[in-house]
Each structure stands twice: as C-alpha cells, then as structure tokens.
Amino acid sequence: MPAYNNHPMARIPHSSSINCVRWTRDPSSKRLVCGGDDPVLCIYECTGVFTSMGSIDQPSSSTTLPSEQQEILRKVENYRCTHKLFGHTLDVLHLDWSPDGKYLASCSLDNSIIIWNARKLPEKLTTLKQSGGGHSRGVKGLAWDPVGRFLATQAEDNTLKIWQTDSWTCVHTFSEPFAESAISTLFCRMDWSPDGCFLVAPCAMNNGGPTAKIFMRKDWAYSRDLVGFRKAVCAVRAHPHCFQRTNYSGTNSNFACFAIGSRDRSISIWLMPNFARPLVVVEKVFKDSVVDLSWCDLTLAASSKDGVVRILKFSDNEIGNMLSTQETASIIEKLYGIKQHNTSDEHINNNDDSFSSTNGIQNIAFPSSSDFGYTSICESLARRTAETTINSEEELFKVAFGREPPKRRVSMEMLKRFVRKAKRQKNGIEQQNNSIPPNGSENLLILVKMLKLME
C-alpha cells in the first residue's frame, strides 16, 4: 500500500523494554509518554521534521539489484526527552492522558496508580494506593472516562475499580466477573465507548469461558459479555469517534466501534450496542498474544508480543459513517450537559512550560547541549522560530537546552568550530529556501552569540 512506506519515522532509545506508549490527545502537540520495565516514565516531544535520503536501518540481506535501487526522500522526526517521572518502584504496565489534557495516569506492578499534573510536570497530584481503597496487587490497565468524571483501573487482584476524578476516591469495586481470571495475563487494557455510556473490560470470565465484560454507566450493571474467544482478552480499544448507520427503517442510529485483541492471537471488530456478534474476526494475526491496539480514522494498528505490528484498514461501507470530533462532542454534551473542548484551543498560561503552544517561544525544542547536532539545531531554529520574539540570549538558551545557561565559558576552539558550522548551515538554509523571514536568521545569529555562555 502506498500509504505505508514501511520505514520508521523515528527511533527513540529507552533504558528497558517498553510496555505502553500513548500520544497526548492534543492534536497540536507532538508529545508522547513511554512506560516500561524500569519504573521511570519518559515524556518525549518532537523537535522537528527533517528530510532523509534513503531508508533508516535497511535490512542488509536485500535482494534488490543496484541498478534497481532508487533514492527516496523520507521524512524523519527528531525527539528529545523533556521529562522523566519518578514515583513507581516496579514495572509500569499502562498509562494515558486524560481527555482534557490536564492529567496523566500511570499504573504499575507496585499496586499503585499515580496521577500526574500534565500541565506542570513532574508534579504528582496523588497516588491511589491500597490504603486509600486501591488495589492489593499489581495494576495492569486503566482508562479515562471521555466525559472526565471517572478513571477505571484493573489489577491482578481480580478487581476493577472506578475512581471519581474530582475527589480521587474509589466509588465502585467489581470482582465477580474476574473471580476466575488468570493472573498470567500481563495486560488488561480496557476502554470506554466514545460517548461514555459503557466500559468494556478484558480478562473477564463467564461460565468458564473468556469474555470482555460490558459495564453500563447508567447503573453499573454488567450482565452483557462479548464472547467467542478461545483465550483471555487482553486489549480493548474503542474508536474515538462515534459512527452512524442507516437502519432498515430508514432512520439513522449512532454506535461505537471497538477492536478487541486476545491471547488467542485474534482481533475482532464490534459495532455496539450490537453485543451479539462481531462485525469481523481476523484469526492468527500474530505468532503470539495481541498486546495493544490503536485507531487512526479507519485504520487500526495492532501490536503483538512477538514484536510485530499489523495494519488493518477498513472502509466506510464496512463500518459506517464516522462522525466528526465536533459531532461526537455534541453527543456527549446532550447526554451529560458537559461541553467538550479541544485542548489545542485552550489557552495555556505563561507559567506552564509543559505544553507547546501553537505560537510563541514554547514551540522551540532542541537536543541537549551535550549532543550539539549542529545541523538540526540551526535548521530548526531558522525554520521553526521565524515568527518568535526572543527576549534575551539567556531565554533562548533555556528554551533550547532545557536548563539555565552555565556560568563557565566555552573554550574558544569549541566556539570557533561551532560558529563555522552554524554559519555554513545558515547560508545553506537561505540558499535552499528564500522564504524564511528575517527573524529566523536573527534568531540563528543570537544562538551563535549565546553559545559563548556555554561550558
């Protein structure tokens, strides 16, 4: 398929195996959070998009003849770690941003859930522990209510808990559907319907068979199951948009689209509230268990414990008419009287350095000073800060390198070497693209002068 070039946009190193990655829900911010076998959460932000000739890490055992090879320009994204969050003591299995972008929740095998202030990282708001009504064993999954009132968590103590977000108190605990669940299932990734009307939880059992359990928000009843799995369900992912179809009577009805992944290596698509049977079941997708799922429009990405990612693409005729973000938000407003807002439209106050605003100095992000990356720094500065007003050299340094300027001065030899490379890069950029506003070049010169402050 031409839409997928089968090459990585970026490769981000991590200190251990990664168990979960989630992008921020703000479409204007290229931030993601990673959690893995070490107890540290890492926040990464895209610092720029560059053009690369050829591919990244091409297999050495290629059968393509030299005469048939073509040089292809590909976009490559550069990321830097902006925050490291310390708080857990054991493996982090799941994490996610709240719908309004204010919070980040993470859960771990240390039996705890930590709620982080996403606007003022690395600040912790609270830790949900057993002593406060929390889980007695490792927590394997969580899901934010799209309305913003509840956080659901699931653990290997065979319970699912509902937390109220205005007080961070546990208001419901469910154990019966999970009493016979095997603790060997590593992940319990649940999800809410996009209108918040029900929650679908994995790792449930009914009459000795594995199911995904449906919890109705209205009265928290759980009499319905999604069935047909040979092994435990471990991943549930709802499409973030509602869908619409015309039924036999000619009227339109709204529904939610769920992807369900199981340890039996299958992926099934369910259109709810039709809980009776799935739309489609794809069996033996991987050699091992499904571990996570993610939607993008009508495309579903699925990852497996065997290290493979599969892409499944659907059409409007197969699923239905996907409603827009605004239409889905209107449904939530009618149901709950809560007006949804886009985090990208929300004003971020000047004291908040965790979010990148659409305009202004917060848009700049660079590699650390220990890894100059001359070309990427200069190109990013000239292209991405053309409309930015820099108040001082010290301010630019702090934004570019994430710390205050050091007091010791750089050696003259290092400074001369950098100035030569910076000037060459500046001239090259201006020759390639004459549309860079003057302020972009001015900022580049400020950076060169500013480096006199570097150690």
Automatic annotation (TrEMBL):
GO terms, molecular function: nucleosome binding
Ranges: WD repeats: 85-117, 132-173
Predominant place of localization: nucleus
Keyword Nucleus: yes
Gene3D superfamilies the UniProt entry points to: YVTN repeat-like/Quinoprotein amine dehydrogenase
Gene Ontology cellular component list: chromatin; HIR complex; nucleus
Residue ranges of domain CAF1B/HIR1 beta-propeller in the record: 14-319
This protein's name: CAF1B/HIR1 beta-propeller domain-containing protein
A GO biological-process term: DNA-templated transcription
Keyword annotations from UniProtKB, A to Z: Chromatin regulator, Nucleus, Repeat, WD repeat
Localization: Nucleus
Originating organism: Meloidogyne enterolobii
Domain of life: Eukaryota
InterPro entries attached to this UniProt entry: Beta-prop_CAF1B_HIR1, HIR1-like, WD40/YVTN_repeat-like_dom_sf, WD40_repeat_dom_sf, WD40_rpt
Protein family according to the UniProt entry: Belongs to the WD repeat HIR1 family.
